[in-house]
Amino acid sequence: MKTKRHSLEKNEQKMALWLLLPSFVILFTIAFYPLGSVFSKSFTNERFASSQKTEFVGMQNYQKLLSLKITKLEAVSQDSNGTIIYEDPIDILPREPFRYKEISQFNIFSNHYVFSATDPAFIVSVKDTLTFTLLSVALETILGMAVALIMIKNFPGRGGMRVAMLVPWAIPTAVSSRMWEWMFASTRVGVFNVMGQWFGITNGQFPWLADPSTQVWAMIAIDVWKTTPFMALLIMAGLQTIPKGIYEAATIDGCNGWKQFTKMTLPMVKDTLVVALIFRTLDALRVFDLFQIVFAQKRYSMASYSYYQLIDNKLMGYSSATSVVIFLIIFLFIILYTKISGGVTDE
Amino acid sequence: MIKFKKFLVLFITLLTAISFSTFAGGQDEMASASTEDAKQTITVAAGAVGMEFTLAEEAAKTYMESHPGVEINVLQTPDLTTDRLGLYLQFFQSKSSEVDLYQIDVIWPGDIAEHLVDLNQYGAKEFTDAHFEAIIQNNTVDGKLVAMPWFTDAGLLYFRTDLLAKYGYNAPPQTWDELKIMATKVMNGERAAGNQDFWGFVFQGNSYEGLTCDAIEWVASNDGGSIVEPDGTISINNANAAQALDRAASWVGTIAPDGVTAFGEEDARNMFQAGNALFMRNWPYAYSLGNGDGSVIKGKFDVSPLPSGKNGMRGASLGGWQLAVSKYSKNPELAADVLFYFTGYEQQKKRAIVGSYNPTIESLYDDAEVLAAVPFFGSLKAVFLTTVARPSTVTAPRYAQVSKVFFDNVHKVLMGESTGAKAVRNIELDISDIIE
Amino acid sequence: MNKKASKIFSKIIFWILVVYLFIYFVFPFYWTINTSLKTENQLLMTPATFIPVDHLTGEAVFSLQNYKAVFTNPTFINGLKNSLIVALSVTILCLIIGSFAAFALGKLRFKGKRFSLYLILSMTMFPQISVLTGLYAVINKFHISAIPAMIFSYFLFTLPFTIWVMTSFFKGLPNSLMQAANVDGATAFQSFYMILLPLTAPAMVTTGLLAFIAAWNEYLFALTFTSIEESARTVPVAMALFTGTIAKQEPFGEIMAAAVVVTIPLLILIYIFQKKLIEGLTAGAVKG
Fold first, then answer.
1. Are the CB atoms for C168 and A202 separated by under 8 Å?
2. Considering only CB atoms, which chain A residues are within 8 Å of B407?
3. pLDDT in tens, A76-130
4. N or C: less crowded end of chain B, CB within 10 Å?
């Protein structure tokens, strides 16, 4: 008996190797050189499409990218209203080896501080991307779950609804971004300004995409619209493996709707849900198309920031360092997910 | 196991077949290219679909008729400027000889000069005098002429002739202050008459390169310099520049819609063409569109140079496209010859008449046939002689960063988050960091 | 009585939700169709109209000029063909390769499972732009033509996802099925493609559909790889090349018409496959 099981296991190991080989070969071939060169270039000052000699600069790119500082600002005077005027950060922030630029000012108790960084655009892009990711993914999951629960019920017109449901995902991002951009237009050519006027929210001239307070929300709105179908579809696929019979049995036993959902449905779609969450979060952290098309250089996501460093500024070394940092941030998220969901495989 | 192995073998064979066909395909292309060596091929990366592309193809055809041994291939490139630049850079990075001639934006010569040939070495001198000097200067990097001007663009003031007459004005404004007065009066009048979407002045206020164009006009026309002077001095931190920016900020929400801070060229044109604006700052392309069929403003508008701020100074931002020869071209001499033809008198005249493209050859603005086809070109010559170029050549290869610093800070002023004085100080500090 | 009332009530809520969701998902697409039927003058109207309306007379009138422009654009038509080839190849190959790997990772016993899964995942942790330049350099060096280049590089983002989703499905299938087949004398591979694979049909359809759409809509890589090979351009690239007759003009109506033309075949595809989805599920519960 033992020998049979042993050889069975060996067989399985061998077969597993063969089955996995194509995937690994393909992925390795495509990714090896590009990803390897990203890592190595991040330690240089290489310029894109330039004959300038490439030099090894060690951690300099990372230093420039990630240096942060919180400095206290002293009060300088008081104006007529009694408002305290503080030092101008430009005067006191250090300039060597790189100039620290102000991001924001805040108060803790009675002390006034300025938060600064050597690359404020990147820091803000990280903050924006994280905000965008957390809010989008949360909304998409909840909405996707709701849609999935509705869609697995049998009702007339279900076929049509399933098609309607995938419309946002099917339209190319390039197109749906332009569409939403048009809808967000800052005059009454844009449907949101028209509707905003009906409900008295705006005067018909609100620049949704230029006002910093609404920019990220606009992005979230577009992404939620676009990606909820993706979540819904995956969750639906998971829901469909649950046999219907157990719900009837539960109802007979007196277990009602919400309890059925939390105690029965959720645990059984956990696996699919975790996969969906991981990939949605990965995609959201790497968001590029949306920000590039709608915002270009107005507001960056981490990935579009990397793009502009490469193409507009031709700073290949710096852009590569940005990519590596993005990778590390994403890696952290994955570790987080794994810890929370309790592992992916049973090994 | 046997069945599985069979499957796998089949699969790997399939994959290998595909890979071979890829390489084989590549070889075939190379083979056919060498047999066609009897004909020399020049590839031009110019324009996307539409008029630009058609005109480029026709120019290619005419050249090929008189030069039977040459084949010219016109390549479509994306219209989105960043995409196009990204593409060109990929070519340069791989030192590709696939493309011989590149259509480049007026702000690129400095950045990509090292990948372009010096046209003076190929006989450019006989042509350069005919073109506008400002552009030739813009295209000269370290003494090398890296691109020939092809068609140009400059910021213009569009105004509604009917409305100005209606409210008692007989000429477009000469100064920015005059513009504000006129705009306020007409706006109040039109609003009272029922058009609640009417505004006085629309321009490009979004946070992008277009804002650099508009803002440099405000600053230059107020005698505030041109951000970085041709000799490399950073001149932006001065009171005139700050005043110009503050003045622009005062228009937002008063004579210009609040949403103007998100406007690009098309947004401004949409508003003006729908009849909802008195003044517009835009490029010449909007002229023929405004006179198109079905336009409500057809025949009711005209153009003039932008108003002056201080001391009679005026500034129109220089735009336009140039043609350049790639250093990696296999046939630079032939490519240069094609280039001189494309940018020559005959072609520029044709493009002006057929497509309303602004020629870069000065004498064409006095040509009778051109003026018959596009009469408003007459008023453009004066504008093209007072253009202010963005400091792309002097700050190369860091112009993109310089411009970003500039338009970021200007946008903050327009949004009311900063003042002109603070902004220009920030700009000066940041630019000095960038160009060290 | 109470039960009946609450049943009707929940039915009403249900239908309100359905209608609301329908509007939410479809409205922007409706707006796209609306925009595509307008001429430029109609597009400039303020306030924007919900049906194409003549800007002078106010009566409903729509125009097909944008569609005409789209269909007479050879790059666009060619793009449809290219996109189909690329997307179809990627999807089919991805499903085959992916399900092999997923079966191994989900059902077979061996060391290094977790490591493999995460290694595969790590490929997708980089932003596309960082991979682009390196890939382009490789493609140029080996003179790989555009279409195979696109097919292979799209694996980078479709394969990991397919593998992960299918793995979780295979894991969810009871081991008893495989053991029973084993007893009957089937090899592991036979039980894979004769018994387990058909049961993962919903997952295959789902990931296949999502992979297809992802490949169909990809822009950046396609733009770069087809830059000199015009005949290989796909639909998103063709749409980016849309300009009006004059530079800087954005023919919004035409772009929207192109969007409609591009999306309709996808919607038809989805409709066909979602029927299969239902069939696959009602073909019997997996457990019990």
1. no
2. 297
3. 888 777 777 777 787 788 877 788 888 888 888 888 888 888 898 999 999 999 9
4. C
> How many Cβ pairs within 8 Å bridge chains A and B?
101
Q: Is residue A44 part of a domain?
A: no
* Global ipTM: 0.80
Residue among B4, B8, B401 whose CB faces A313 most closely: B401
Of residues B112, B205, B262, nearest to A209 (C-beta): B262
Mean pLDDT of the C179-201 span: 75
Q: Would you say residue B27 has pLDDT above 50?
A: no
Are A227 and A167 members of one domain?
Answer: yes
DSSP lists the bridge partners of residue A75 as A86
- The encoded tokens of residue A302 equal 């981490």
Confidence class of residue A243 from pLDDT cuts 50, 70 and 90? confident
Could B94 and C148 be called an inter-chain contact, meaning their C-beta atoms sit closer than 8 Å? no
SS3 sequence, A240-283? CCCCCHHHHHHHHCCCCHHHHHHHHHHHHHHHHHHHHHHHHHHH
The residue written with tokens 């905000």 in the block is A131
CB-based burial of residue C16 (10 Å sphere; 0-12 exposed, 13-18 middle, 19+ buried)? exposed
Q: Are residues A236 and A212 in the same domain?
A: yes
What architecture is the B156-318+389-435 domain classified under in CATH? 3-Layer(aba) Sandwich (3.40)
Residue B86, Cβ density class (10 Å: 0-12 exposed, 13-18 middle, ≥19 buried): buried
**Quick check: helix, strand or coil at residue B321?**
strand
Q: Where exactly does CATH 3.40.190.10 map onto chain B?
A: 2-153+320-385, 156-318+389-435
With an 8 Å Cβ cutoff, are B208 and A208 in contact?
A: no
A-chain residues near B261 (CB < 8 A): 186, 207, 210-211
Residues A141 and A223 grouped into a single domain: yes
Map tokens 């049998």 to a residue. A154
Q: Which residue on chain B is closest to C89 by alpha carbon?
A: B18
Domain count, chain A: 2
Contact C209, A233 (CB under 8 A): yes
Look up the domain containing A110 and give its range: 68-118
pLDDT score, position B7: 52
Rounded to whole angstroms, the Cα distance separating C127 from C2 reads: 56
Closest approach of B364 to chain A, Cα-based (Å): 35
Closest residue in B to C45 (Cα) is B274
Distance, in Å, from the CA atom of C206 to the CA atom of A165, rounded to the nearest integer, reads 14
In-domain check, residue A22: no
Answer yes or no: do A88 and A224 share one domain: no
Task: Return d(Cα A241, Cα B286) in angstroms, integer.
Answer: 59
Taking the C-alpha atoms of residue B21 and residue B7, their distance in angstroms, rounded to an integer, is: 21
* Beta strands, E only, A2-123: 68-73, 75-78, 84-86, 101-108, 111-117
Structure tokens at C273: 């496959």
The alpha carbon of A207 is separated from its chain's Cα centroid by a whole number of angstroms, namely 24
In this structure, what token pair is assigned to residue A286? 């790497």
Same domain, A158 and A254: yes
Give bridge partners of residue B85 from the DSSP assignment. Answer: none
A206 and A267 within one domain: yes
Least confident of A213-222, B6-15, B180-189, B370-379: B6-15
Considering the domain architecture, whether residues A100 and A210 belong to the same structural domain is answered as no
The tokens for C142 are 């080996």
- Taking the C-alpha atoms of residue B323 and residue B152, their distance in angstroms, rounded to an integer, is 12
In words, the CATH class of domain C73-241 is: mainly alpha
- Does residue A318 share a domain with residue A301? yes
Q: How do residues C43-67 score in pLDDT, each as one tens digit?
A: 777 667 777 777 666 677 777 888 8
Contact map slice: A 8-47 vs C, CB within 8 A = 9, 11-13, 15-17, 19-20, 22-24, 26-27, 29-31, 33-38
Mark out the alpha helices in B193-284 (DSSP H runs): 209-221, 239-251, 265-273
Q: Which fold has domain B2-153+320-385?
A: D-Maltodextrin-Binding Protein; domain 2 (3.40.190)
